[in-house]
Amino acid sequence: MSEPVSALNAAAFDGLAHVQEAGLHGMITLRGDHADADFAQAVADVAGVAMPDQREVVSGGDTSLIWMSPDELLLLCPYAEAGETVTKLTEALGDTHALAVDVSDARVVFTLTGTHIRDVIAKLAPVDMSPAAFRPGMVRRTRFAQVAAAVWLRDDETAQIICFRSVAPYMFALLCNAATPGTEVGIF
Amino acid sequence: MLILECPYCGVHAEETELHGGGEAHLTRHGPESSDQDFEGYLFQRENPRGVHFERWRHVHGCGKWFHAARCTATLEVFGTYSAQTSEPPQHIRDRISAKRPGWSWRELA
């Protein structure tokens, strides 16, 4: 077996914010009706965390459940456990009209840390990044310049950005450019 | 700049996060229909100055289609609503009537 390698091999950049390709993450896309009690129960049982509300993330230990749309969730877990978790989910979901797919190798995760992360994100995405509108624990699917991405604010100084692996170098270049030292806007 | 609220994820999405899907509430006519109905479905579109109903897709977000009622002259948005309907809901019509008395659009008024 070949060794799994993350998209940019943990590339990092220091500027307005610290940009870090966050390495290998287990990522599972879940499709199903959140309002369906069987679906919600099966997901919560296997994930070990509660179902998130609209545009929110629920975390526990090294597992996070991210709200992606009214019928889609993204489950983050350790890379090595993704395959097993998909099997468990598929069993738990049974006949429910739902789908669990391992997308760990199709996505890439970036971590942005520092006091200016809101500045950096606001330069790239058409999102209201004011602390009143976008609070820790919230997630927003949007675009960063020309590519689709999801941004999750873990806390006031940490954000995680998830996008397709195929655009990882583009996203890294974007983030580094937006984090160029001396380019802070300072409105947040 | 046009900002529409996605009725599925509650996001106030700016136009570049969305994709326009043309006129709303078209009745689809297939091969069994009359030539006139089929031509109307394929080619005849409203192009109003004022109240208009459109389909939009939250393409860089939840990916869902939805409907929007807006004014093409001022870009004022009267509201957005679910795609799972063949006509605008009453509360949207009421809001348009309050702001544009006497409005009409196709057979709606």
From TrEMBL, chain A:
InterPro entries: SoxG, TrmE/GcvT-like. It comes from the Bacteria. It holds the Pfam family SoxG. This is Sarcosine oxidase subunit gamma. It comes from Puniceibacterium sediminis.
UniProtKB/TrEMBL annotation, chain B:
It holds the Pfam family SoxD. One of its GO terms (molecular function) is sarcosine oxidase activity. Transmembrane segments: none annotated. One of its GO terms (biological process) is tetrahydrofolate metabolic process. This is Sarcosine oxidase subunit delta. It comes from Puniceibacterium sediminis.
